[in-house]
Every structure is written in structure tokens, then in C-alpha cells.
Amino acid sequence: MSCSPRPFLPRSGRNDGLAGSVPSGRPGTRPLGRAAAGVYVRGKTRQPARSPTVTDLPTLPDRLSTDPKSPHYDEAVLSREVGIRFKGVEKTNVEEYCVSEGWIRVAAGTAKDRFGNPLTVKLKGPVEPYFKS
Hints:
Elements: E1 39-41, E2 44-46, E3 63-65, H1 75-78, E4 82-86, E5 89-91, E6 94-98, E7 103-112, E8 118-124, E9 127-131
Antiparallel strand pairs: 1-2, 3-6, 4-5, 4-9, 6-7, 7-8
């Protein structure tokens, strides 16, 4: 005996646009219920308007540099305070980072190259950038 799933049919045959209603032309779909955030209207689910919160901060780029000559330099992002957590420890001397490749470039002491830029060392490990404020 095979048991095939029965299509869900709404209690009333009308679609009044409320959450949880299913149009009569779509058998086999289930209502969204009150727990769902969207509202079902004419075949589309619309999300209700949200007020901006602290968690709606702009995202940090995958790669960022503090050197203005670098193609990964971004003045708008660096205008805010950016923190870097590398291997679970906060680093304050990071010159450049890349999240996807998992590395940071840090200054190697106070040594400078012939152009006056600090000598850097590339360290590999998990990188977590974040906005401090």
C-alpha cells in the first residue's frame, strides 16, 4: 500500500491576502502560519518593513588595506574604526587582511623599506574583522 501525500486545501475557497492563506490555484502548498514573517499576496511573499537596527551595519569587505596606494584601500570603510581578531586575539598593528584566504599582514617591528613603508609579515589563520563601534 503506497501512501501519497494529499495536497493541502485551504479551509475557505477564497484568498483574502492574509498570512497563511493559499490561493485556490496552487494545490500542494501549505500556509505560512502566524510564525512566518512574510505575507502571501497574489503569488508573492512580501517581507514587512523593518526599522534599521544596530545589526544593519554595512558589511566589511573580504580584503582591506590601510595603504592608500593599494587597490584594496577603502576610505569609507576605514573612516569607521575597524578591529581585527586573528586566531581569537585582537590585533592592532594589521596593515592588510583577507578573510577568504585567511591571512593578515602585520608590521615587522619598526623596520622600514627604502620607500619608508613598514616591512610586513604575512601570518595565516582565521581572520574576523568587525566594526568597533
